Amino acid sequence: MGCPRRALPAVLALGATLLAAGCVPGTDGSGAAGSGTGVSTAVPDPKAAGKTTLTVWDQEIRGGTNGEITQLNREFERKYPNVRIKRVARSFTDLKTTLKLAVSGNNPPDVIQANQGYPDMVSFVRAGLLAPLDNYAGIYDWNTRYPNTLLNLNRVSTDGTDFGRGRLYGISQTGEFVGLYYNKDLLRKAGLEPPETWGEFTAGLARLEERGELPVQFGNLDKYPAIHTFGVLQDQYAAAATRDTVLGRGSGFDTAATKDAAATLTDWMKRGYLSKGANGLGYDDAAKKFASGDGAYLMTGTWLLADLKKTMGDKLGLMPPPPAKPGGAPVTTGGQGLAWSITSRSRHPEVAAAYLDFITSAHASDVMTRHGVLPAVPGPAAARVAPDTVDGQMVDGWKRLSAADGLVPYLDYATPTFYDTLSAALQGVVSGKTSPDKLAATLQRDYGAFLDKQRQRHAAAESR
Predict the structure, then answer these.
(1) Which of 387, 398, 388 is nearest to 184 (CA)?
(2) Assigned domain for 285 exists
(3) Range of the domain at 365
(4) pTM metric for this prediction
(5) 58-98, pLDDT tens digit by residue?
(6) Where does 145-296 show beta strands of DSSP type E?
(7) Whether 139 and 100 share a structural domain
(8) Number of neighbours of residue 78 by Cβ within 10 angstroms
(9) What is the C-alpha to C-alpha distance for residues 220 and 258, in angstroms, rounded to an integer?
Protein backbone atom coordinates (compact mmCIF):
# COMPACT_ATOMS: atom_id res chain seq x y z
CA MET A 1 0.00 0.00 0.00
CA GLY A 2 2.74 2.45 0.95
CA CYS A 3 3.06 6.22 0.92
CA PRO A 4 1.30 7.09 -2.35
CA ARG A 5 -2.04 6.15 -0.77
CA ARG A 6 -1.61 8.21 2.37
CA ALA A 7 -3.92 10.74 0.76
CA LEU A 8 -6.54 8.01 0.35
CA PRO A 9 -10.04 9.25 1.13
CA ALA A 10 -10.47 7.93 4.65
CA VAL A 11 -12.21 10.05 7.25
CA LEU A 12 -9.88 12.92 6.36
CA ALA A 13 -11.60 15.66 8.29
CA LEU A 14 -12.02 13.42 11.31
CA GLY A 15 -8.26 13.04 11.22
CA ALA A 16 -7.87 16.79 10.92
CA THR A 17 -9.97 17.18 14.06
CA LEU A 18 -7.83 14.70 15.92
CA LEU A 19 -4.59 16.22 14.64
CA ALA A 20 -5.69 19.66 15.74
CA ALA A 21 -5.92 18.24 19.24
CA GLY A 22 -2.33 16.97 19.05
CA CYS A 23 -3.36 13.44 18.17
CA VAL A 24 -0.40 12.43 16.04
CA PRO A 25 1.55 9.19 15.95
CA GLY A 26 3.54 8.34 19.03
CA THR A 27 2.78 8.61 22.69
CA ASP A 28 3.82 12.20 23.21
CA GLY A 29 2.26 14.04 20.26
CA SER A 30 5.67 14.50 18.65
CA GLY A 31 4.89 12.49 15.55
CA ALA A 32 7.52 9.87 16.32
CA ALA A 33 6.51 6.28 16.77
CA GLY A 34 6.33 5.30 20.40
CA SER A 35 8.51 2.63 21.92
CA GLY A 36 5.50 0.34 22.33
CA THR A 37 6.70 -3.03 23.51
CA GLY A 38 10.32 -1.90 23.49
CA VAL A 39 11.44 -5.03 21.65
CA SER A 40 13.72 -5.46 18.66
CA THR A 41 13.35 -3.38 15.53
CA ALA A 42 13.92 -6.39 13.25
CA VAL A 43 10.99 -7.82 11.32
CA PRO A 44 9.77 -10.87 13.27
CA ASP A 45 10.04 -14.26 11.57
CA PRO A 46 7.13 -16.50 12.62
CA LYS A 47 9.07 -19.56 11.40
CA ALA A 48 11.60 -18.96 14.18
CA ALA A 49 8.85 -19.41 16.78
CA GLY A 50 8.66 -23.15 16.22
CA LYS A 51 5.37 -25.01 16.42
CA THR A 52 2.81 -22.39 17.41
CA THR A 53 -0.93 -22.15 17.87
CA LEU A 54 -2.23 -18.61 17.44
CA THR A 55 -5.66 -18.14 19.00
CA VAL A 56 -7.70 -15.44 17.26
CA TRP A 57 -11.11 -14.10 18.30
CA ASP A 58 -13.06 -12.15 15.68
CA GLN A 59 -16.60 -11.16 14.73
CA GLU A 60 -16.29 -11.67 10.97
CA ILE A 61 -19.07 -14.24 10.68
CA ARG A 62 -20.79 -12.84 7.58
CA GLY A 63 -20.32 -14.01 4.02
CA GLY A 64 -17.77 -11.54 2.65
CA THR A 65 -15.71 -10.88 5.77
CA ASN A 66 -15.84 -14.54 6.80
CA GLY A 67 -14.67 -15.50 3.32
CA GLU A 68 -11.73 -13.14 3.20
CA ILE A 69 -10.53 -13.97 6.73
CA THR A 70 -10.86 -17.70 6.05
CA GLN A 71 -8.79 -17.32 2.88
CA LEU A 72 -6.14 -15.14 4.54
CA ASN A 73 -5.86 -17.52 7.50
CA ARG A 74 -5.22 -20.43 5.13
CA GLU A 75 -2.63 -18.41 3.24
CA PHE A 76 -0.87 -17.39 6.46
CA GLU A 77 -0.68 -21.04 7.56
CA ARG A 78 0.72 -22.02 4.15
CA LYS A 79 3.34 -19.28 4.39
CA TYR A 80 4.23 -20.32 7.95
CA PRO A 81 3.56 -24.09 8.18
CA ASN A 82 4.65 -24.14 11.81
CA VAL A 83 1.73 -21.89 12.79
CA ARG A 84 -1.82 -23.09 13.30
CA ILE A 85 -4.56 -20.49 13.64
CA LYS A 86 -7.24 -21.42 16.15
CA ARG A 87 -10.10 -19.15 15.20
CA VAL A 88 -13.07 -18.30 17.42
CA ALA A 89 -15.67 -16.36 15.37
CA ARG A 90 -18.66 -14.82 17.13
CA SER A 91 -21.31 -12.26 16.32
CA PHE A 92 -20.65 -8.66 17.31
CA THR A 93 -23.10 -8.90 20.20
CA ASP A 94 -21.63 -12.17 21.48
CA LEU A 95 -18.10 -10.82 21.14
CA LYS A 96 -18.92 -7.73 23.20
CA THR A 97 -20.51 -9.93 25.86
CA THR A 98 -17.75 -12.50 26.22
CA LEU A 99 -14.51 -10.87 25.15
CA LYS A 100 -13.41 -9.19 28.38
CA LEU A 101 -13.85 -12.42 30.33
CA ALA A 102 -11.83 -14.32 27.73
CA VAL A 103 -9.01 -11.77 27.62
CA SER A 104 -8.74 -11.57 31.41
CA GLY A 105 -8.92 -15.34 31.88
CA ASN A 106 -6.13 -17.87 32.46
CA ASN A 107 -5.71 -18.73 28.79
CA PRO A 108 -6.36 -15.54 26.81
CA PRO A 109 -6.40 -15.42 23.01
CA ASP A 110 -3.41 -13.91 21.22
CA VAL A 111 -5.34 -11.70 18.82
CA ILE A 112 -8.78 -10.15 19.27
CA GLN A 113 -11.04 -7.68 17.55
CA ALA A 114 -11.80 -4.83 19.94
CA ASN A 115 -14.42 -2.18 19.31
CA GLN A 116 -12.93 1.30 19.38
CA GLY A 117 -13.87 3.94 21.91
CA TYR A 118 -14.43 3.93 25.65
CA PRO A 119 -16.70 0.89 26.20
CA ASP A 120 -14.21 -1.71 24.92
CA MET A 121 -10.75 -0.63 23.74
CA VAL A 122 -10.14 2.03 26.39
CA SER A 123 -11.47 -0.17 29.18
CA PHE A 124 -9.25 -3.04 28.02
CA VAL A 125 -6.22 -0.74 28.02
CA ARG A 126 -7.02 0.58 31.49
CA ALA A 127 -7.20 -3.02 32.70
CA GLY A 128 -3.83 -3.82 31.13
CA LEU A 129 -5.31 -6.38 28.72
CA LEU A 130 -3.93 -5.07 25.40
CA ALA A 131 -0.35 -4.65 24.22
CA PRO A 132 0.76 -1.36 22.62
CA LEU A 133 1.70 -1.79 18.98
CA ASP A 134 3.81 1.31 18.28
CA ASN A 135 7.01 -0.71 17.91
CA TYR A 136 5.39 -3.03 15.37
CA ALA A 137 3.88 -0.03 13.57
CA GLY A 138 7.42 1.15 12.95
CA ILE A 139 8.75 -2.26 11.97
CA TYR A 140 5.95 -2.97 9.49
CA ASP A 141 5.49 0.62 8.27
CA TRP A 142 1.88 0.77 9.44
CA ASN A 143 2.51 4.47 10.09
CA THR A 144 2.83 4.97 6.32
CA ARG A 145 0.43 2.26 5.19
CA TYR A 146 -2.42 3.92 7.09
CA PRO A 147 -3.31 7.60 7.20
CA ASN A 148 -3.23 9.07 10.70
CA THR A 149 -6.99 9.51 10.43
CA LEU A 150 -7.41 5.75 10.81
CA LEU A 151 -4.54 5.03 13.18
CA ASN A 152 -5.70 7.69 15.64
CA LEU A 153 -9.05 5.99 16.21
CA ASN A 154 -7.10 3.00 17.54
CA ARG A 155 -5.01 5.02 20.00
CA VAL A 156 -5.44 5.37 23.76
CA SER A 157 -3.64 7.96 25.89
CA THR A 158 -0.77 6.81 28.08
CA ASP A 159 -2.83 7.36 31.22
CA GLY A 160 -5.64 5.24 29.78
CA THR A 161 -8.23 8.01 29.97
CA ASP A 162 -8.77 9.13 26.37
CA PHE A 163 -9.07 7.57 22.96
CA GLY A 164 -7.89 9.20 19.75
CA ARG A 165 -4.36 9.96 20.94
CA GLY A 166 -1.41 8.21 22.55
CA ARG A 167 -0.26 4.67 22.00
CA LEU A 168 -1.52 2.45 19.23
CA TYR A 169 -3.52 -0.58 20.36
CA GLY A 170 -4.88 -1.98 17.11
CA ILE A 171 -5.11 -1.70 13.36
CA SER A 172 -8.27 -2.07 11.34
CA GLN A 173 -8.73 -4.18 8.28
CA THR A 174 -11.92 -2.77 6.78
CA GLY A 175 -13.49 0.56 6.01
CA GLU A 176 -17.23 0.89 6.40
CA PHE A 177 -20.15 3.26 6.22
CA VAL A 178 -23.86 2.97 6.98
CA GLY A 179 -25.68 3.42 3.69
CA LEU A 180 -28.95 2.80 1.91
CA TYR A 181 -29.24 -0.58 0.24
CA TYR A 182 -32.14 -0.53 -2.19
CA ASN A 183 -34.14 -3.00 -4.24
CA LYS A 184 -34.02 -1.71 -7.82
CA ASP A 185 -37.13 -3.65 -8.84
CA LEU A 186 -39.29 -2.29 -6.00
CA LEU A 187 -38.21 1.28 -6.65
CA ARG A 188 -38.89 0.93 -10.38
CA LYS A 189 -42.36 -0.52 -9.79
CA ALA A 190 -43.13 2.46 -7.55
CA GLY A 191 -41.91 4.85 -10.24
CA LEU A 192 -38.94 5.90 -8.15
CA GLU A 193 -35.28 6.41 -8.91
CA PRO A 194 -32.47 6.19 -6.35
CA PRO A 195 -32.93 9.52 -4.53
CA GLU A 196 -30.55 12.40 -5.16
CA THR A 197 -31.55 14.34 -2.03
CA TRP A 198 -32.76 13.53 1.48
CA GLY A 199 -36.09 15.14 0.64
CA GLU A 200 -36.54 12.86 -2.38
CA PHE A 201 -35.74 9.89 -0.18
CA THR A 202 -38.33 10.72 2.49
CA ALA A 203 -40.97 11.58 -0.14
CA GLY A 204 -40.32 8.19 -1.70
CA LEU A 205 -40.93 6.48 1.64
CA ALA A 206 -44.44 7.93 1.70
CA ARG A 207 -45.09 6.78 -1.86
CA LEU A 208 -43.90 3.25 -1.11
CA GLU A 209 -46.09 3.02 1.99
CA GLU A 210 -49.13 4.22 0.04
CA ARG A 211 -48.54 1.42 -2.48
CA GLY A 212 -48.51 -1.17 0.29
CA GLU A 213 -44.74 -1.71 0.19
CA LEU A 214 -42.58 -1.64 3.32
CA PRO A 215 -40.33 1.37 2.77
CA VAL A 216 -37.44 0.44 5.12
CA GLN A 217 -36.76 -3.03 6.46
CA PHE A 218 -35.57 -2.72 10.07
CA GLY A 219 -34.88 -5.21 12.86
CA ASN A 220 -33.71 -4.02 16.28
CA LEU A 221 -33.86 -7.09 18.49
CA ASP A 222 -30.05 -6.96 18.71
CA LYS A 223 -30.26 -3.29 19.85
CA TYR A 224 -27.26 -1.97 17.92
CA PRO A 225 -29.12 -1.54 14.58
CA ALA A 226 -31.05 1.42 15.99
CA ILE A 227 -27.75 3.08 16.88
CA HIS A 228 -26.84 3.04 13.19
CA THR A 229 -30.27 4.23 12.02
CA PHE A 230 -30.45 6.96 14.65
CA GLY A 231 -26.88 7.99 13.85
CA VAL A 232 -27.73 8.48 10.19
CA LEU A 233 -30.74 10.62 11.12
CA GLN A 234 -28.74 12.71 13.58
CA ASP A 235 -26.01 13.21 10.99
CA GLN A 236 -28.53 14.89 8.69
CA TYR A 237 -29.11 17.57 11.31
CA ALA A 238 -25.65 18.18 12.77
CA ALA A 239 -22.84 15.96 11.52
CA ALA A 240 -19.91 18.12 12.64
CA ALA A 241 -21.35 18.75 16.10
CA THR A 242 -22.10 15.05 16.55
CA ARG A 243 -18.52 14.16 15.64
CA ASP A 244 -17.15 16.65 18.17
CA THR A 245 -19.44 15.30 20.87
CA VAL A 246 -18.38 11.68 20.28
CA LEU A 247 -14.75 12.80 20.53
CA GLY A 248 -15.44 14.56 23.85
CA ARG A 249 -15.27 18.13 22.57
CA GLY A 250 -18.87 18.91 21.68
CA SER A 251 -21.93 20.38 23.36
CA GLY A 252 -23.34 17.02 24.35
CA PHE A 253 -26.52 15.17 23.45
CA ASP A 254 -29.26 17.37 24.90
CA THR A 255 -29.52 19.19 21.59
CA ALA A 256 -32.04 19.97 18.88
CA ALA A 257 -30.28 17.51 16.55
CA THR A 258 -30.74 14.65 19.03
CA LYS A 259 -34.39 15.48 19.56
CA ASP A 260 -35.09 15.98 15.86
CA ALA A 261 -33.48 12.64 15.00
CA ALA A 262 -35.53 10.88 17.69
CA ALA A 263 -38.69 12.61 16.49
CA THR A 264 -37.99 11.44 12.93
CA LEU A 265 -37.45 7.87 14.10
CA THR A 266 -40.71 8.02 16.07
CA ASP A 267 -42.55 9.49 13.08
CA TRP A 268 -41.23 6.81 10.72
CA MET A 269 -42.48 4.09 13.07
CA LYS A 270 -45.93 5.69 13.33
CA ARG A 271 -46.22 6.13 9.57
CA GLY A 272 -45.28 2.52 8.88
CA TYR A 273 -42.04 3.41 7.13
CA LEU A 274 -40.15 0.91 9.32
CA SER A 275 -40.95 -2.71 10.13
CA LYS A 276 -43.78 -3.16 12.61
CA GLY A 277 -42.56 -4.69 15.88
CA ALA A 278 -38.95 -3.90 14.96
CA ASN A 279 -37.69 -4.48 18.51
CA GLY A 280 -38.70 -8.12 18.17
CA LEU A 281 -37.07 -8.69 14.77
CA GLY A 282 -33.43 -9.77 14.60
CA TYR A 283 -30.87 -7.94 12.49
CA ASP A 284 -30.05 -10.99 10.38
CA ASP A 285 -33.72 -11.83 9.94
CA ALA A 286 -34.42 -8.30 8.73
CA ALA A 287 -31.58 -8.60 6.21
CA LYS A 288 -33.00 -11.89 4.94
CA LYS A 289 -36.44 -10.32 4.59
CA PHE A 290 -35.00 -7.44 2.59
CA ALA A 291 -33.03 -9.82 0.36
CA SER A 292 -36.22 -11.77 -0.35
CA GLY A 293 -38.03 -8.63 -1.51
CA ASP A 294 -39.67 -7.42 1.71
CA GLY A 295 -38.67 -3.77 1.90
CA ALA A 296 -37.46 -1.23 -0.63
CA TYR A 297 -34.57 -0.02 1.53
CA LEU A 298 -32.29 -1.44 4.22
CA MET A 299 -30.22 1.06 6.21
CA THR A 300 -27.08 -0.69 7.39
CA GLY A 301 -23.35 -1.04 6.86
CA THR A 302 -21.18 -2.03 3.95
CA TRP A 303 -20.21 -5.20 5.81
CA LEU A 304 -23.48 -6.77 4.64
CA LEU A 305 -22.91 -6.27 0.92
CA ALA A 306 -21.59 -9.73 0.05
CA ASP A 307 -24.44 -11.50 1.85
CA LEU A 308 -27.13 -9.39 0.18
CA LYS A 309 -25.54 -9.57 -3.27
CA LYS A 310 -25.44 -13.36 -3.09
CA THR A 311 -29.25 -13.45 -2.91
CA MET A 312 -30.26 -10.33 -4.82
CA GLY A 313 -27.68 -10.12 -7.60
CA ASP A 314 -28.26 -7.21 -9.97
CA LYS A 315 -31.41 -6.12 -8.12
CA LEU A 316 -29.23 -4.72 -5.29
CA GLY A 317 -28.06 -1.13 -5.16
CA LEU A 318 -26.13 0.81 -2.51
CA MET A 319 -25.61 4.50 -1.89
CA PRO A 320 -24.65 6.79 0.99
CA PRO A 321 -27.65 8.59 2.49
CA PRO A 322 -28.39 11.35 -0.03
CA PRO A 323 -27.42 14.95 0.80
CA ALA A 324 -29.82 17.73 1.68
CA LYS A 325 -29.35 19.49 -1.67
CA PRO A 326 -28.65 18.23 -5.20
CA GLY A 327 -24.92 17.79 -5.62
CA GLY A 328 -24.36 18.43 -1.91
CA ALA A 329 -22.03 16.63 0.44
CA PRO A 330 -23.31 13.30 1.83
CA VAL A 331 -22.93 12.47 5.52
CA THR A 332 -23.37 9.23 7.44
CA THR A 333 -22.09 7.10 10.28
CA GLY A 334 -18.92 5.18 9.53
CA GLY A 335 -15.15 5.01 9.59
CA GLN A 336 -13.38 1.71 9.99
CA GLY A 337 -14.05 -1.79 11.23
CA LEU A 338 -13.17 -3.14 14.65
CA ALA A 339 -9.48 -2.99 15.51
CA TRP A 340 -7.34 -6.12 15.47
CA SER A 341 -5.32 -6.08 18.69
CA ILE A 342 -2.71 -8.21 20.47
CA THR A 343 -3.47 -9.17 24.04
CA SER A 344 -0.94 -8.24 26.69
CA ARG A 345 -0.49 -11.85 27.80
CA SER A 346 -0.18 -13.39 24.35
CA ARG A 347 2.41 -16.17 24.35
CA HIS A 348 3.30 -15.34 20.76
CA PRO A 349 3.24 -11.53 20.33
CA GLU A 350 5.67 -11.48 17.39
CA VAL A 351 3.71 -14.13 15.49
CA ALA A 352 0.56 -12.16 16.30
CA ALA A 353 2.14 -8.97 14.92
CA ALA A 354 3.12 -10.77 11.71
CA TYR A 355 -0.48 -11.99 11.45
CA LEU A 356 -1.86 -8.45 11.82
CA ASP A 357 0.52 -7.24 9.14
CA PHE A 358 -0.49 -10.07 6.82
CA ILE A 359 -4.26 -9.53 7.07
CA THR A 360 -3.91 -5.78 6.45
CA SER A 361 -1.37 -5.94 3.61
CA ALA A 362 -1.84 -4.80 0.02
CA HIS A 363 -2.54 -8.41 -0.93
CA ALA A 364 -5.12 -8.68 1.86
CA SER A 365 -6.80 -5.52 0.56
CA ASP A 366 -7.24 -7.14 -2.84
CA VAL A 367 -8.55 -10.35 -1.26
CA MET A 368 -11.12 -8.28 0.63
CA THR A 369 -12.20 -6.51 -2.55
CA ARG A 370 -12.69 -9.82 -4.36
CA HIS A 371 -14.93 -10.97 -1.49
CA GLY A 372 -17.06 -7.81 -1.69
CA VAL A 373 -15.51 -6.25 1.42
CA LEU A 374 -14.41 -2.61 1.63
CA PRO A 375 -10.74 -2.37 2.69
CA ALA A 376 -9.71 0.43 5.05
CA VAL A 377 -6.93 1.20 2.57
CA PRO A 378 -8.16 0.11 -0.88
CA GLY A 379 -5.59 -1.53 -3.15
CA PRO A 380 -5.32 -2.00 -6.92
CA ALA A 381 -8.27 -4.40 -7.08
CA ALA A 382 -10.65 -1.73 -5.74
CA ALA A 383 -9.64 0.62 -8.55
CA ARG A 384 -10.61 -2.04 -11.09
CA VAL A 385 -14.13 -2.66 -9.77
CA ALA A 386 -16.75 -1.77 -12.40
CA PRO A 387 -18.47 1.45 -11.29
CA ASP A 388 -21.94 0.28 -12.38
CA THR A 389 -21.89 -2.69 -9.98
CA VAL A 390 -22.96 -2.60 -6.34
CA ASP A 391 -19.30 -3.16 -5.37
CA GLY A 392 -18.39 -0.13 -7.47
CA GLN A 393 -21.13 1.86 -5.75
CA MET A 394 -19.63 0.92 -2.38
CA VAL A 395 -16.11 2.01 -3.35
CA ASP A 396 -17.42 5.24 -4.89
CA GLY A 397 -19.52 5.98 -1.81
CA TRP A 398 -16.48 5.53 0.44
CA LYS A 399 -14.48 7.94 -1.69
CA ARG A 400 -17.24 10.56 -1.84
CA LEU A 401 -17.99 10.45 1.86
CA SER A 402 -14.35 10.70 2.82
CA ALA A 403 -13.59 13.51 0.40
CA ALA A 404 -16.65 15.44 1.63
CA ASP A 405 -15.83 15.08 5.34
CA GLY A 406 -19.01 13.04 5.60
CA LEU A 407 -18.02 10.25 7.99
CA VAL A 408 -19.13 10.56 11.61
CA PRO A 409 -17.83 8.13 14.29
CA TYR A 410 -20.17 5.59 15.84
CA LEU A 411 -22.12 7.11 18.71
CA ASP A 412 -21.33 4.28 21.11
CA TYR A 413 -17.67 5.37 21.22
CA ALA A 414 -18.69 8.35 23.36
CA THR A 415 -18.43 6.96 26.93
CA PRO A 416 -17.67 3.63 28.64
CA THR A 417 -21.39 3.00 29.20
CA PHE A 418 -22.86 4.73 26.16
CA TYR A 419 -23.50 1.60 24.11
CA ASP A 420 -25.80 0.20 26.80
CA THR A 421 -27.41 3.57 27.54
CA LEU A 422 -28.06 4.45 23.91
CA SER A 423 -29.22 1.04 22.72
CA ALA A 424 -31.70 0.67 25.59
CA ALA A 425 -33.02 4.21 25.17
CA LEU A 426 -33.49 3.76 21.43
CA GLN A 427 -35.51 0.63 21.96
CA GLY A 428 -37.82 2.87 23.94
CA VAL A 429 -37.99 5.36 21.06
CA VAL A 430 -38.75 2.58 18.58
CA SER A 431 -41.51 1.21 20.81
CA GLY A 432 -42.98 4.69 21.32
CA LYS A 433 -42.37 4.67 25.08
CA THR A 434 -39.49 7.15 25.11
CA SER A 435 -40.01 10.73 23.93
CA PRO A 436 -37.32 12.73 22.10
CA ASP A 437 -36.87 14.96 25.17
CA LYS A 438 -36.45 11.97 27.46
CA LEU A 439 -33.94 10.37 25.09
CA ALA A 440 -31.87 13.55 24.95
CA ALA A 441 -31.89 13.90 28.75
CA THR A 442 -30.93 10.23 29.24
CA LEU A 443 -28.00 10.46 26.85
CA GLN A 444 -26.81 13.73 28.37
CA ARG A 445 -26.77 12.29 31.90
CA ASP A 446 -24.46 9.51 30.76
CA TYR A 447 -22.27 11.83 28.70
CA GLY A 448 -22.11 14.60 31.31
CA ALA A 449 -21.21 12.22 34.14
CA PHE A 450 -18.42 10.79 32.02
CA LEU A 451 -17.01 14.23 31.16
CA ASP A 452 -17.02 15.14 34.87
CA LYS A 453 -14.98 12.02 35.65
CA GLN A 454 -12.60 12.81 32.79
CA ARG A 455 -12.00 16.30 34.14
CA GLN A 456 -11.31 14.88 37.59
CA ARG A 457 -8.85 12.35 36.17
CA HIS A 458 -7.04 15.02 34.17
CA ALA A 459 -6.88 17.35 37.17
CA ALA A 460 -5.48 14.55 39.34
CA ALA A 461 -2.87 13.72 36.70
CA GLU A 462 -1.77 17.35 36.43
CA SER A 463 -1.42 17.68 40.19
CA ARG A 464 0.94 14.73 40.42
Answers:
(1) 388
(2) yes
(3) 46-175+337-383
(4) 0.84
(5) 999 988 999 999 999 999 999 999 999 999 999 988 988 89
(6) 155-156, 167-168, 171-172, 175-183, 216-217
(7) yes
(8) 9
(9) 19
